[in-house]
Amino acid sequence: MSRTAPRSGIILSGTDPNLPPGNVGEFEKYTDFQEMARGGKALLTECYDRIIGRTVVMKRLLPKFAEDEQEQRRFLREARVTAQLQHPNTVPVYDLGRDDEGHTFFTMKRIYGENFHEILKKIAQGDEQTIEEYPVGRRIEVVADACLALAYAHALGVVHRDVKPENIWVGEYGQVILLDWGIAKVWGHYDDFQRDPKDPDAVPWDESIEVTQQLRTLTQAGQLVGTPLYMSPEQVLGHRYLDERSDIFGAGIVLYEALAIHEPFRGRNIRETFDRIIHEPPTPPHEKSPQYDIPPEASEIALKALSKNADERFQTMLEYVEALRNVARKIEP
């Protein structure tokens, strides 16, 4: 099935130019920095914009990556793609510039709440309050809301490539935000961030290495783009040109986990995990976790989204969202 990118949308060339020389933005207006989270390559800090008078979140590359040309380009792309995806289920970007050391930063809306991964973890641990606040119908609605952001991105020709519960934020007032467009790609364009698996510097699979360590090594090396537990077969197989159906597969994994409180493809190591993603159909969620009273119709939606053949999945994210909404309406609150 031949699929082409939308005629209008985000232009890849418009997300990559370097910032002009000199000071860009007014970094000195930000005060009261407090570290929020530190990832493998970037730092998130809460700070106060004393000109506008509001608290924001600032994202910057860690010092050892701040001078890396490829990481700078990826960082700029993340900021610009996120800024152009103006949707109720994405986070607004406020500013883009350089800090007092000449390193690039961008600021975003400060969101209060909890990521979906932590919510599902509490349910797995038997936390009664979380179980009461997030019955199966509500969990389906959270997935559907996040998928609306994906539908909007797809309309602009952008594939997220890292759809997972950690990147879904549920706000204090019920708002759902899909975060982290750091490895998003513009549909139909060559993926200049993914290293050729035949590259002699590529990291080979080693079954003796624990899964999370393997994941970290492979993604840092650039051999894999995405999080292995949530990758589509196309991503695992290294397809260079992905469309929205890859994100539909990732959203199917999120739905499965939201229903069964269990990942569908986790193996003993990364090789086994990938083999399951490519070859093994998962057990239907309502059979995997009967204790959660999962409607069989919801299981059917998850399994369709997780079809190995992209042509057998939902063909658009809006189609997937409609199916989720329909089944959520049938569930008793």
UniProtKB/TrEMBL annotation:
Protein name according to UniProt: Serine/threonine-protein kinase PknD
Source species: Stratiformator vulcanicus
EC number(s) reported in the record: 2.7.11.1
Top-level taxonomy: Bacteria, Pseudomonadati, Planctomycetota, Planctomycetia, Planctomycetales
Keywords carried by this UniProt record: ATP-binding, Kinase, Nucleotide-binding, Transferase
Gene that produces this protein: pknD_3
SMART domains: S_TKc
Gene3D superfamilies xref list: Phosphorylase Kinase, domain 1 (3.30.200.20), Transferase(Phosphotransferase) domain 1 (1.10.510.10)
One family name in Pfam for this protein: Pkinase
Protease recorded as keyword: no
Gene Ontology MF terms: ATP binding; protein serine/threonine kinase activity
InterPro entries, per the entry: Kinase-like_dom_sf, Prot_kinase_dom
PROSITE patterns noted in UniProt: PROTEIN_KINASE_DOM (PS50011)
Domain Protein kinase: 30-333
Enzyme class: transferase
